[in-house]
Amino acid sequence: MQDLHTNLADLAHFCAAHGVEAWLVGGAARDLARGEVPTDLDIAVATDGYRLARAYADARGASFVGLDEARATGRVVITGAQPLTLDLAGLRAPTIEADLALRDFTLNALALPLNFWQQPTAALADGVPDAAWLDPTGGLADLRAGLLRPCSPTSLADDPLRVVRAARFCARLGVQPHASLLPLMLATAPALVNVAAERISDELLKLLDAPVSAPWLRYLDACGALTVILPELEAARTCSQPIVHFLPVLAHSLETVAALDWLLSGLFGERTTDLGDNTDDQAGEATDARPGSAWLPVAVQTHPGITRNLPFAETLAPLLGTPCGAGHYRRAALLKLAALLHDNAKPLTRVAHPDGTVTFYGHQSLGAERATLAVRRLRLSRRDGRYVTLIIREHMRPGQLRTSEVLTMRAVARLFRDLGDAGPDLLLHELADHLATRGPNLDLAGWQTHLAWVELLLQHYYAPPMTKRQPLLNGHELMAACNLKQGPQLGTLLHAIAEAQAAGEITTRDQALELACAMLASAGSEADTQNM
């Protein structure tokens, strides 16, 4: 906090020396009012913010970034032990009060004059008194009451993205929508089709990155916004499922996100006790799912004895808490997006058979194709998009392995080879999907067995790497020994030999040759049969 005061005091003196009024505004002002320390500061100035930012950066030897010269907005980046970013923007109205009234929600329409930091340091120790704030819309009262209220009846229409932002603020700040918000959300949601895809995906993924996101996805759906953003989900709304499921497809997908909320909150140790979750995750104790804990998945609400002491939690937490590669969004948020979309093709593949059974054959493959179009439309990075579609394409495989009569190490190795570093993520999705499928019909003993099965697979995944084995045969040796030419058949044989070697089924060159010869003989026999 002291560094923040020092930097703001310096900027306040600089602005005063140039005869410029300036105010701390936006999310930084809101966070300060909440008792938090902001690291990215929004500063409103009664002049050209672009030119003032450049002058301040030059005077302090800081970095200048020209954000938008036409809108008089510039950025100053101060490096050091605690880097600080200051965005300076000119007023959008004749006065600061009128500027604040143009903002989205009252809790973001607070301003603190920078001359507040020209006081002696001792006077700042007690925080910011209410009288120091400019608060024309009642934001302080709403912040303390935990309410999200629009600044005006046109707040959402002025920028329809605020529909998604409203849900994101509710999720991340723990506030509830004011009664005046819902009709504005309903009226404005259709206009989201006119908002740039990059802006929508940024807000959606920030919402998904919140500890508890599923209730606010449901809120967006109730407002008509969710399927404007993801039209792939509309047909899933009324798509019924076999009796093993207790929800239709769209509700099941949202319930899967709720299950991930619960699992990931335990994994990250995030505080959700104010929302009714009393799990002591440090001790691996059971959840006390009190009535009214509506954010919890139904399986947890109806089974007070359920636990979420996930295997390999110490390893999974940092994995899910970091982005894919150099991306901006945590894997946890992307995994929830995959969960939301994982059954999107079920309505297109649903077949009701004469015996009463219902199947969705191939929905995972078609769903991945449709999700590829969705993530492209949302302008996700190529790597983030591949992650989402990979989870969707492969989401049936863990269940198929779990219900197979014989679980071979070759099949497990093949799964993790195909998934790469997303293997553990897929297993977490499998657990969430299981909870969302069974719901009130969950068998606690079966859940414990499921956790033990996931632990078995993760033990294989995280087993200490063995010394890298040399291939038993290379391509040239196999070509010479079996009189083969380069081509797909050679690659298939080498791949099969490598798999068998990794599974410990073969250990010598002769055994590798025997396997290759057997495969060639089998292929030849099949060809002869087809030609008869």
TrEMBL record:
Pfam families: PolyA_pol, PolyA_pol_RNAbd, tRNA_NucTran2_2. Its cofactor is Mg(2+). InterPro entries: CCA-adding_enz_C, NT_sf, PolA_pol_head_dom, PolyA_RNA-bd, tRNA_CCA-adding_enzyme. Residues 22-149 form the Poly A polymerase head domain. GO terms for molecular function: metal ion binding; nucleotide binding; nucleotidyltransferase activity; tRNA binding. Residues 185-235 form the tRNA nucleotidyltransferase/poly(A) polymerase RNA and SrmB- binding domain. SUPFAM superfamilies: Nucleotidyltransferase, Poly A polymerase C-terminal region-like. Belongs to the tRNA nucleotidyltransferase/poly(A) polymerase family. This is Polynucleotide adenylyltransferase. It comes from Candidatus Chloroploca asiatica.
